[in-house]
UniProtKB/TrEMBL annotation:
This is Thiamine-monophosphate kinase. Residues 35-148 form the PurM-like N-terminal domain. It comes from Chryseolinea lacunae. GO terms for molecular function: thiamine-phosphate kinase activity. Keywords: ATP-binding, Kinase, Magnesium, Metal-binding, Nucleotide-binding, Thiamine biosynthesis, Transferase. The gene is thiL. ATP binds at residues 113, 130-131, 157, 236. The lineage of its organism: Bacteria, Pseudomonadati, Bacteroidota, Cytophagia, Cytophagales.
Length: 344
């Protein structure tokens, strides 16, 4: 009998590792390929092009019964720009490819593109092309983004050094709790279509889920402060998962402190309401699109008053000793659960 291996056994990251092992780069301009938030391509002696792509699939990444299609357009650009920001670079162009079933009207596509254009405007990005095709099962959006940076300004996942400070922007777990709220309201609505959900209390989290922003502002703030992160990644799958990418690529370990993890108070209260642990939501909830980065200790002073950058821990030399220090002072090993689309 023919051998058949299940993708779920490898998981998303295992599968990518397997693909990566079979790829070699041949062009001298391909500086960095698979394995970071974006590929790095040499443009001139001192400048590089950054290239990244992300696909959003209806029923997997979004549910149009509660996601306004305009927001979906905005978000699909924001998540791509976020991968360029995660290289400490500026996004400049995107291409947008869509596959549509006949369920979608011209007006729906107009609304999707209004969202895409709004995001292009807010990030200073140009829409320069794409592809259009039909689909038998709903909507698929695939966006590629190009960015640019000085070669010596690019931040990789692999640059974290012992004694560096771990920083994260904004607050975490909000987008995940927003999704929980939206899913719950959907079930309530399906049970009784006359029920009008009271969403005011959850507005912040629902906004985090439906309208995430790429943190390009942080890239500019760091440049202005004269701080180049030693390593950087965007938080798309959850803080724990992203920390593991950094420690694995950099060959280091991390220690983070529970009381330093930024969680908005409405996220905290809603997690408790849902019988979830707020810290677990911040560690393992996805889609916040904040930036996680390390800086040299000497640079901490330069950004210590930034209102949206939080110091959550530091880097040490003991690989495989990635720990969370709880509020009670207990040492707990970090585990990366993240979002795995291949696990049921
Ligand atoms: P992110 O969450 O930052 O978008 P991913 O986890 O999707 O990153 O991807 C990690 C790395 O693997 C990236 O460098 C990406 O380009 C690469 N990658 C993902 N899927 C594939 C694929 N099917 N073929 C080749 N490279 C891939
Ligand atoms: Mg990323």
């Amino acid at each position: 009998m023919e051998n058949r291996s299940e993708i779920s056994q490898l998981g998303e990251f295992g599968l990518i590792e397997r693909l990566r092992g079979n790829v070699t780069l041949t062009n001298p301009t391909s500086l960095v390929g698979i394995g970071d938030d974006a590929a790095v391509i040499q443009a001139t002696d001192d400048e590089c092009i950054l290239l990244s792509t992300d696909m959003l699939v209806e029923g997997v990444h979004f549910d149009l019964s509660y996601v306004p299609i305009h927001h979906l357009g905005y978000k699909s650009v924001a998540v791509n720009v976020s991968d360029i920001a995660a290289m400490n670079a500026k996004a400049e162009q995107i291409t947008v490819s869509i596959a549509l079933s006949n369920r979608f009207s011209v007006e729906a596509v107009d609304a999707l593109y209004a969202g895409i254009r709004a995001a292009c405007e807010s990030y200073g990005v140009d829409l320069v092309g794409g592809d259009t095709t039909s689909s038998t099962s709903g909507l698929i959006i695939s966006i590629s983004v190009m960015g640019r940076a000085k070669r010596d300004q690019i931040a990789y996942r692999s640059g974290a050094k012992v004694n560096d400070i771990l920083c994260v922007t904004g607050d975490l777990g909000g987008a995940f709790m927003g999704l929980q709220v939206l899913e719950r309201e959907k079930q309530v609505f399906l049970a009784d279509p006359n029920m009008q959900p009271d969403m005011e209390k959850y507005e912040y989290m629902v906004g985090r889920q439906l309208k995430p922003e790429a943190r390009m502002d942080i890239v500019y703030d760091l440049l202005e402060a004269g701080v180049k992160p030693t390593s950087m990644i965007d938080v798309s799958d959850g803080l724990a998962s992203e920390l593991f990418h950094i420690v694995k690529s950099s060959g280091v370990g991390v220690r983070i402190y529970e009381d330093k993890i930024p969680i908005d108070h409405t996220t905290y209260e809603t997690a408790v309401e849902f019988n979830l642990d707020p810290v677990t939501c911040a560690l393992n909830g996805g889609e916040d699109y904040e930036l996680l980065f390390t800086i040299s200790k000497d640079d901490q002073e330069k950004i210590k008053n930034h209102p949206d950058i939080h110091f959550i821990g530091y880097v040490h030399d003991r690989k495989d000793q990635n720990v969370l220090i709880t509020k009670q002072g207990t040492v707990v090993p970090l585990r990366a659960q993240g979002w795995d689309h291949f696990k049921g």
